[in-house]
Amino acid sequence: MKDVFKAVRITDRVWWVGAVDWNIRDFHGYETKRGSTYNAYLVMADRIALIDTVRAPFRDEMMCRIASVVDPQAVDIIVSHHAEMDHSGSLFETAREIRPDVIYASEMGKKTLNELYHGAGDVIAVKDGEKVSLGNCDLAFYETRMLHWPDSMISWLESEKMLFSQDAFGMHLASSGRFDDEIDPAVLEYESATYFANILLPYAPLVGKALDRVGAMGWDLKFIAPDHGPVWRSDLGRILGNYRRWASQEKTRKAVIIYATMWHSTERMARAIGEGLSSAGVPVRVLSMAENHRSDAAFEILEAGALIAGSPTLNNNIFPSMADVLTYLKGLRPKKLIGAAFGSYGWSGESVRQLEDMLKEMKVEVVTPGITAKHVPDPPVLQACYDLGRQVGERLKTTIP
Ligand code: FEO
Question: How far away, in angstroms, is 262 Cα from ligand 1 center?
Answer without folding.
Answer: 36
